[in-house]
Specification:
The complex is a heterodimer of chains A (482) and B (251).
Chain A (H helix, E strand, L loop, with lengths): L2 H9 L14 E3 L6 H10 L4 H15 L23 E3 L14 H9 L13 E7 L2 E5 L2 H7 L2 E4 H7 L1 H7 L10 H9 L4 E5 L8 E7 L10 E6 L4 E9 L6 E4 L2 E6 L4 E8 L11 E12 L5 E8 L4 E4 L2 E4 L5 E10 L4 E10 L5 E10 L4 E10 L7 E10 L5 E10 L5 E10 L2 H8 L5 H17 L4 H15 L5
Parallel strand pairs in A: 3-7, 6-8, 7-9, 8-11, 9-12, 10-13, 11-13, 12-14, 13-15, 13-16, 14-17, 15-18, 16-18, 17-19, 18-20, 19-21, 20-22, 21-23
Antiparallel strand pairs in A: 1-2, 3-4, 5-6
Chain B lengths: L1 E10 L2 E11 L4 E5 L6 H9 L5 E9 L2 E2 L5 H6 L2 E4 L6 E5 H16 L6 H14 L10 E2 L5 H15 L3 E5 L7 H13 L6 E5 L13 E6 L2 E6 L1 H10 L2 H9 L1
Parallel strand pairs in B: 3-10, 3-11, 6-9, 9-10
Antiparallel strand pairs in B: 1-2, 1-4, 4-5, 7-8, 11-12
Helix pairs in contact in B: 5-6
The chains are: A alpha/beta (482), B alpha/beta (251).
C-alpha cells in the first residue's frame, strides 16, 4: 500500500459521534422468534385482531423464504433466533401524554443527538416523531398539525385510532410477501410513523422522524406509512443513529408512500447508523424496503437519501409510476468508508402514460469500502411517452476501495426515452494540490471536492438537512486524506 | 526574498534539477527561459510543494524561512502563489467559494479579519474588471468547462485577489491568443510593486514584450547557464538555445 493511501485513510479516521448508550431501564422480550413472540408484541400494543392476523400471515410466509443473495455484499450469517424483537423504555404502559411525562433521560438522549424535543427549543417549523428502540417516545406539534387535518403520529397509535386507514393502505405498496426482510418486518414491526395528509392540504411544516437504536442485541423494525390524498403536499425527513457496539445489529424497516392524484411527497433521509469500527467490527445491518406508489394522475414522489452510516446498507427506494403523467425522483449520496458495504439504488417502474423519472446517484468509496449502485428502469407497454434520465457517478479515494454499477433496463415500449450517464473518478492528487497551493488545508480541500461532487443531491434536501448532511459527510471523511 | 542554492531535484530516478542557484529580491521580476525539458516547470512545482518531487540536495530560503520544510498550504499562506500551467477543474465547487476560502486562509495568516460575503464580492468584482472577466465566472465550477484562455485568466484573477509576496507563473502565456496575453500581462503588471517578486517561467520571448523583466535566466539541463537583462531574451529569440548549451559544454 502506498504512503498516499495511508495518508488518505488518516483523514477518514474520525470517530462516530453518536455512539453513546443511554442507561435506561428497558422492557425487552427474550431473544427468539415464533408465533408466540408475535402474539406478545401485538398484545403489548393492544392491537386489533386484523393487525395480529396480518402479522401472522407475514410470519408464516417469511418462514418459507431465504435471505436474498444477489446483492454485491459480503454478509456474515445472521441468527434470527438470537435477536430480541421488542425493546421499549419502561413505563411505556402509561404512555406519556405530553412531553413533560417523557423520561428526562430520553429527552437528554435526543438533546445529545441534536434533536431537541421541547417545543420552544426546536427548529421552528419541523414536527418530530422520535422512535427509541422499538417504540415512539414523543411526537411534537401534534395539535398544530391536527388543525390542518394532518395526522402525524406513532404507527401504534394510528393502528388504534385510525384502523380504517391502516387496513386500507398497509401493505398496499410493499406487500408482506415482497421480500425476506419486508416479510420479517411485517411480522414483527414495532413502531414507526404514520402520516395522512387530507385532500388539498399542504402540510404546514416539515415532518420528521428520528430513529435511535439503544438496547443491545435488539433489532429495529419500524414501519412508516405516508398517505397523501388528492392534491395534497408533504415533506418528510428521517434521521437515524445508534450506539457503538462490537456485534452487528439488524435494522429492517419498511416505508410505504401513497400519492393520490395531484399529490406530492418528498421523502428525505440522512442515515447515520453506527458503521462499525475501522476493522469492520460491529455496525448496523441496514436492510430497508422503501417504495412509493404514484397511484393517481399527476402525482409526484421524490426520494432523497444521504447514506453515511451502517456496516451494510441494502436499500432501493423505488417509485411505481401508476398514474398518468406521474413523476418519480431518486437523489442519493452513499458513502462507504473503512469496511462499510453499500448496495443501494432505486427502481422506477413506469406504468402510466407520460410518466417521468430522474435518478441521480453519487457513490463515494474510501478506505476498504465497497459501494454499489443497483438500479432498475422498467417501462411497461402501457407507458406511452415515458422518459427516464439516470446519472450515476462514483468517486474513489485511495486504492483499496471499490465502486460498482449495475444499471438494469427493461424497456417494453418502443416510444420510451431512456438516458443513462455514468462516470467514475478519483479525488485527484492535482485537485488536492491545487486547493492546497491556494492556502486551503488538505482536510478542507477534501470536503470541498466531495461536497462539489454531491452538490446535485444536496440541493434537493430541505435547508436544515442540507447543512447537517454536509457536516455529517465531512465528519465521516475526516482522516481519509492526509 | 527567495534564495535558491545548489538545488537538486528528481522524479523517481530521473534527475531534473542539477545544482540550480537563483537569487530573487523583492520588487524584481525574473524570467526563467529554457528549452523543453530543461526543468522550468519542475522548479515551479518544487517551489510550490507539489508531491512526487524529491529534493536530494540544496536549499531554498524564502523570507529567511526554509521553504522546503513547509506544507503547500503553509507556503501559500506565507505569500507564495503558483499560477498553474494546467489549471485544475474541480466540478461542482463554486469558483467564488474556493477563492473566498483561499483569501480568508491567507488573511487569517496575516492576522487580518476574514472577509464576509459582501466585502469579498466587492473586492473580487474590482479585480474581475481588471481581468475583463464576466461576473458569471464566480458561480461556475472551478475551471469547469473553461476555455484555455479563461483558465489562465482565472489564475491571474486568483493571484490579484490573494496578493502574494512571491508569484510564480508557470507558462502562463502558453495557449493564449494575443488579446488574452495582453489582458493577462495587464493583470500581472498591476501587481508589480517594491514588496513583491514575480518569477515568470516561459518558453517564448513574446510574454516579455508585455511584462518587462529585470533579469532573464536561461535554464538548461537542470542549471542556470546564463543570466542577463532583457537583451538576453531577445538574443535567445534570435539565436535559439543551442549556443547556450555549447557554451556551457566548452566551459
Amino acid at each position: 500500500m502506498s504512503t498516499k493511501t495511508q495518508d488518505l485513510e488518516r483523514v477518514f479516521g474520525e470517530k462516530y459521534r453518536h455512539g453513546f448508550v443511554t442507561d435506561i431501564e428497558s422492557d425487552t422480550v427474550p431473544p427468539g422468534l415464533d408465533e408466540d413472540v408475535i402474539r406478545l408484541i401485538s398484545r403489548k400494543k393492544r392491537e386489533p385482531q386484523f393487525m395480529l392476523d396480518w402479522r401472522l400471515k407475514a410470519f408464516r410466509h417469511w418462514l418459507t423464504m431465504g435471505e436474498p443473495d444477489w446483492a454485491h455484499l459480503r454478509i456474515a450469517p445472521m441468527d434470527y433466533q438470537a435477536i430480541s424483537y421488542f425493546s421499549a423504555p419502561k413505563r411505556r404502559d402509561d404512555a406519556p401524554k405530553s412531553l413533560d411525562e417523557v423520561d428526562p433521560k430520553l429527552l437528554e438522549t435526543y438533546e445529545k443527538l441534536g434533536v431537541p424535543l421541547h417545543e420552544r427549543a426546536r427548529l421552528a417549523g419541523v414536527a418530530v416523531d422520535a422512535v427509541f428502540d422499538s417504540v415512539s417516545v414523543a411526537t411534537t406539534f401534534k395539535e398544530k398539525l391536527a388543525k390542518a387535518g394532518v395526522i402525524f403520529c406513532p404507527f401504534s397509535d394510528a393502528v388504534l385510532n385510525h384502523p380504517e386507514l391502516i387496513e386500507r393502505y398497509l401493505g398496499s405498496v410493499v406487500p408482506h410477501t415482497d421480500n425476506f426482510f419486508a416479510a420479517l418486518n411485517s411480522a414483527v414491526f414495532s413502531d414507526g410513523s404514520f402520516v395522512y395528509v387530507p385532500k388539498g392540504v399542504r402540510c404546514p411544516m416539515e415532518l420528521s422522524t428520528y430513529f435511535r437504536i439503544n438496547a443491545a442485541n435488539t433489532g429495529q423494525f419500524e414501519r412508516t406509512l405516508i398517505v397523501a390524498d388528492e392534491g395534497s403536499n408533504v415533506s418528510y425527513l428521517e434521521g437515524c443513529t445508534a450506539p457503538m457496539r462490537d456485534e452487528n445489529q439488524l435494522h429492517a424497516a419498511v416505508v410505504e408512500l401513497v400519492a393520490l392524484a395531484d399529490a406530492q411527497i418528498k421523502y428525505s433521509t440522512v442515515q447515520n447508523w453506527y458503521p462499525g469500527d475501522e476493522e469492520g467490527r460491529g455496525g448496523i445491518y441496514n436492510f430497508v424496503t422503501k417504495r412509493g406508489d404514484c397511484r393517481g394522475a399527476n402525482s409526484h414522489i421524490s426520494w432523497t437519501q444521504v447514506e453515511t452510516g451502517s456496516a451494510i446498507t441494502w436499500k432501493y427506494p423505488s417509485c411505481v409510476l401508476t398514474g398518468d403523467n406521474s413523476v418519480g425522483e431518486f437523489y442519493s449520496v452513499a458513502l462507504a468508508n473503512h469496511c462499510q458495504q453499500a448496495d443501494t439504488g432505486t427502481k422506477m417502474i413506469h406504468i402510466g402514460r407520460n410518466t417521468r423519472s430522474t435518478i441521480v446517484s453519487k457513490g463515494i468509496s474510501a478506505g476498504r469500502g465497497q459501494n454499489t449502485y443497483r438500479g432498475l428502469v422498467k417501462i411497461l407497454p402501457s407507458a406511452e411517452g415515458a422518459r427516464n434520465y439516470t446519472q450515476c457517478d462514483s468517486l474513489l479515494m485511495g486504492d483499496r476501495c471499490g465502486a460498482h454499477t449495475f444499471p438494469y433496463m427493461e424497456i417494453k415500449n418502443p416510444g420510451a426515452v431512456v438516458e443513462h450517464e455514468a462516470t467514475t473518478s478519483k479525488i485527484a492528487d492535482d485537485q488536492l494540490f491545487y486547493c492546497r497551493s491556494r492556502g486551503i488545508s488538505q482536510e478542507d480541500a477534501v470536503n470541498m471536492i466531495v461536497n462539489g461532487f454531491c452538490k446535485a443531491v444536496f440541493k434537493e434536501l430541505p435547508m436544515e438537512f442540507a447543512v447537517e448532511a454536509q457536516n455529517l459527510l465531512s465528519v465521516s471523511l475526516e482522516g481519509a486524506v492526509g | 526574498m527567495l534564495s535558491i542554492r545548489d538545488l537538486h531535484a528528481q522524479i523517481g530516478d530521473r534527475k531534473i534539477l542539477k545544482g540550480l542557484d537563483l537569487e530573487v529580491a523583492a520588487g524584481e521580476v525574473h524570467a526563467i527561459m529554457g528549452p523543453n525539458g530543461s526543468g522550468k516547470s519542475t522548479l515551479a512545482s518544487v517551489l510550490a510543494g507539489r508531491e512526487g518531487y524529491e529534493v536530494t540536495r540544496g536549499s531554498v530560503s524564502y523570507l529567511g524561512e526554509d521553504l522546503l520544510a513547509m506544507e503547500p498550504e503553509e507556503r501559500a499562506r506565507a505569500g507564495v502563489f503558483l499560477a498553474f500551467q494546467y489549471p485544475v477543474e474541480i466540478p461542482g465547487v463554486n469558483n467564488a467559494y474556493l477563492l473566498k476560502a483561499a483569501l480568508n486562509a491567507v488573511r487569517k495568516q496575516r492576522g487580518e479579519p476574514e472577509l464576509d460575503a459582501f466585502e469579498f464580492l466587492e473586492l473580487v468584482r474590482g479585480k474581475m474588471k481588471l481581468m475583463q472577466m464576466d461576473e458569471s465566472f464566480l458561480n461556475r465550477g472551478v475551471n469547469e468547462g473553461f476555455s484555455g484562455g479563461e483558465k489562465k485568466r482565472n489564475e491571474i484573477l486568483q493571484m490579484a485577489v490573494l496578493e502574494p509576496k512571491l508569484a510564480l507563473l508557470d507558462e502562463t502565456d502558453s495557449g493564449l491568443d494575443i488579446d488574452a496575453l495582453r489582458v493577462v500581462a495587464k493583470g500581472v503588471n498591476s501587481l508589480r510593486s517594491p514588496e513583491r517578486a514575480i518569477v515568470l517561467v516561459t518558453h517564448y520571448q513574446r510574454l516579455l514584450d508585455y511584462i518587462e523583466p529585470d533579469r532573464v535566466h536561461v535554464l538548461s539541463d537542470g542549471r542556470i547557464r546564463k543570466s542577463g537583462d532583457k537583451g538576453l531574451a531577445l538574443e535567445l529569440e534570435r539565436r535559439g538555445y543551442d549556443w547556450i548549451r555549447q557554451e556551457a559544454e566548452v566551459a
